[in-house]
């Protein structure tokens, strides 16, 4: 049986920014998100009370990394005390399939041609028209790729980024099996040689790649703190890719548009990909050509 | 060829429902048990006398091993891509091999542990061979972790507790397989203790060469203070019984956990609740098949025809076919239920496996591993030793292919797709796994390691469980002549038959052609099997 068929729970959804008329106060209303519930469980009730199996199986590293994000004192949006909660919006209406995002990413991270960390899929709409769908790592809030790693090489930061410690990775590839979005790429041969880098190789700056380990989109984690948007977003001539922050509720694309994230998502009925898998992606898609992407039809 | 009549006879007996019951009087008392001296010399013969073909065989097998080693070095230098892997075929041959090779070690658990617990007496001459097969194949299967890992030089991280992520099925695998390996070693060793003590005596009698002296010392060391007294034998039997019981849940856990590594994902074809059972039954099935092949080969090469008869092979074959039918049923269930699921992923996976790009390996399994073994056993004419061994060989090949069919299609399936369009247009096509000389060589080398290590093991330890067979012989004698019961017990004692010269007793038995122990190359009787 596939998770496709799992029944969807109304409340089993992370809230997105308060574009609603009244602000989403997660702790008081009926709107108790699972993350918030887990947070409460972890801080007081105890993890044993968590009914969800996947919740109980969150890996050690995920727990330790995400623990601060679940403090009750965190923000109303994500329950995190971190200053940022990174998110991405991909406006499918404007994508022309030029794949400049992919090549920019590969150039920047010194990747092989088949390592398409952001892959532009050619899809077909209900009317049979082709359309294009770029797919980075979804930076899942409940990432299936994390708990399966035997050596705790995958982890999720308190700013909502899922990263890989390539020095630690042994290359079992079980995370590639677990990811429902095929967002992980292995280094099957020697990586593309990179010149000396200003920073040491680390999860947020995985350059050069390490042979025999898994790599994936990192949302250009190393540039985000300095206010730069990821390479794919800056190189997209159509302004398709927005990088946003759920905390400050802004999103910016590569052609200078800046939007109020929550409003942008609600007004355009943004959806997320394969939400039935319970992954809670931090990447939203704006459709507009009658696309059906196996996506969540609701905004929040 | 008197064997034809014999094989028919054994086949007729094989239909007797009593054969699967642990009633020793009914099944085994019919034939006179081989004399003790005969058992001892036959069991030690491979140790004492090197067959002519030994070194050539070791040479050929080692050459294959060297080829595999070279391939592995190439893979280390050029990366896992040289084994044919890609992002859309991230798991393939090594993972299938891991499952297959660890799986065939189950034969030892079944033939030895289950038949021991159920007190099936005909198992006796087979247990050592079965346990040795388990002992040899399990580490070879575990070794596949090395080429499987992208960074095998970081293997140590798996045994480094600070890095452990206890929610990972791979780590559970690691614990389960290590425990099972330990249990398999113990399970091989315990029944060996008494035989080592007996074997040491044999070694002391013969000509003394440095190698033999060393072996003698090793035997003495490993046999401890065993002297065959009643209390020791009771203790040992109790321990063996306990380990036999423990080995079974351990074996079940190993393959269940191995299946979790696949099933703990949302991938169509891997996310199957049937997987643990499916994997365990597959392992038992292929394991018994391997035991059949090894037993038949050992019987031939080491001239054990007097002890291992056609009925043994046919009975093992029955167990194999029963497991094969169970596996066929599970396969049917899995694909049937999934084909009803209308989700694109599951339907596409079932379609591609059965009728699409993977139809050939799938139907090969179905015919060679599903139907043919059953057909072989359906007809008396084919239910012979030759038939069983042929079927078992087919099963081994088919089950390896089946593991490829389990592992590869889901790993190559595209997960990002749009559900519309005339043919359900895919966002991404199916991936393809390409066999390369590197991956094939490593696989062949590991397969060659099985006979190689088995040959070495059988040159080092008694190939028959002497003490066990003697005890059963004594029991049979007691049953035959109740008045002589008291006299029959000490027969199994260690020092019985001490003074008899090595080859002298060989011809004493039931006239079976086991004699002339020293000349292993002398062709023996029947030409079948
Ligand atoms: S660069 Fe922009 S328009 Fe081109 S494929 Fe990527 S997202 Fe689409
Ligand atoms: S999209 Fe895949 S790789 Fe990225 S966080 Fe989710 S499961 Fe992990």
Supply database-style keywords.
heterodimer, A: 300 residues, alpha+beta, Alpha-Beta Plaits, 2 domains, two-stranded antiparallel ribbon, 7 helices, globular, disordered N terminus, disordered C terminus, B: 529 residues, mainly alpha, 19 helices, binds iron/sulfur cluster
Description of the molecule:
The complex is a heterodimer of chains A (300) and B (529). Chain A is of the alpha+beta class. In chain A, 17% of the residues lie in helices and 15% in strands. Chain A has seven helices and eleven strands. In chain A, strands 10-9-8-1-11 form a five-stranded mixed β-sheet. A two-stranded antiparallel sheet of chain A has the order 2-3. In chain A, a hairpin with a 4-residue loop joins β8 and β9. By secondary structure, chain B is mostly helical. Chain B has a domain of 163 residues. Chain B has 19 helices and no strands. The longest helix of chain B has 37 residues. Chain B is globular, with a radius of gyration of 25 Å. The N terminus and C terminus of chain B are likely disordered. The chains are: A alpha+beta (300), B mainly alpha (529). One iron/sulfur cluster binds next to loops of chain A.
Concise overview:
The complex is a heterodimer of chains A (about 300) and B (about 525). Chain A has helices at about 35-45, 55, 60-65, 100-110, 175-180, 230-235, 260-265; strands at about 85-90, 120-125, 130-135, 155, 160-165, 185, 215, 240-245, 250-255, 260, 285. Chain A folds into two domains: about 35-75; about 75-300, Alpha-Beta Plaits (2-Layer Sandwich).
Tell me the number of strands of chain A: 11
Which H/E pattern describes the elements of chain B? Answer: HHHHHHHHHHHHHHHHHHH
User: Could you say which structural class the secondary elements and strand pairing of chain B correspond to?
Assistant: mainly alpha
At the fold tier of CATH, the topology name of the largest domain in chain A is: Alpha-Beta Plaits
- Give the strand line-up of the largest sheet of chain A: 10-9-8-1-11
- C-alpha geometry of chain A: globular
Alpha-carbon distance between the two ends of chain B: 12 Å
